[in-house]
Amino acid sequence: MDDKTVHQHVLDELEYAPMIDAAQIGVTVENGIVTLTGHVRNYAEKGIAERVVLRVRGVRGVVERIEVRYPNCPIVGDEALAERCARVLAWDVQIPENAVTLKVEKGCVTLDGCVPFYHQKAAVDQALRRLAGVTDIVNLIAVKPLAQATEVKSRILAALRRSARDPDTIRVHVDGDKVTLDGCVDVWSEREIAERAAWSAPGVRAVEDRLTLA
User: Contact, 46 vs 65, CB < 8 A?
Assistant: First the structure.
């Protein structure tokens, strides 16, 4: 698919997506790589725009340069934002108590610590992304290894069989707590399915995605 067609499809998908003001987002495409510029109203909208683009056929990758600008919202100081983030994490039952520490600098929240499962690491990100004042999140939380390689691989393959249309085109290699996905998929959404399956297995701390579009 040529870049001109991909560009139009990306614009149409952004325009169709809820919660996104597509008029404020610029799009360029070169060799299937989409660059997003402009600004959005909050950090959550920034993530939505990236996910929307990745599901368009022909998109090989995204370079995200979107700025967060909170409309009609007073500037939140770093100290106040850090206190707000800490309270949100303390209230979230998915996140183990005292497992995560955070630092805030100019609205950018850096997370550190260690949790047993990847979904708990993701839950921290989800809990903070809608807070006013957050301009970026750097998630450095580690995941403790809990499972054997054979168990991790069997869980991933089972999830792929439930979700992907042709899981036999995807190869899974487990080395300790790292999972490597190889092979090819028909659409980008199947690549996302494979990644989610890998990250949802207990003990996985890193996923290398080498999948290509057929």
Answer: no
DSSP label of 167? G
Question: Could you tell me if 66 and 34 are in contact, meaning their C-beta atoms sit under 8 angstroms apart?
Answer: no
Q: Residue 84 is inside which H or E element, if any? A: helix 78-91
In sequence order, what are the beta bridge partners of 35? Answer: 28, 63
Taking only the tens place, the pLDDT of each residue in 156-201 is 778 777 776 667 788 888 887 788 888 888 777 778 888 888 887 7
Going along the chain from its start, the domains and CATH numbers come out as 3-68 (3.30.1340.30), 78-143 (3.30.70.2210), 149-213 (3.30.300.130)
Please work out, in degrees rounded to the nearest 5, the angle formed at the alpha carbon of residue 145 by the alpha carbons of 139 and 150.
125
pTM across the whole model: 0.50
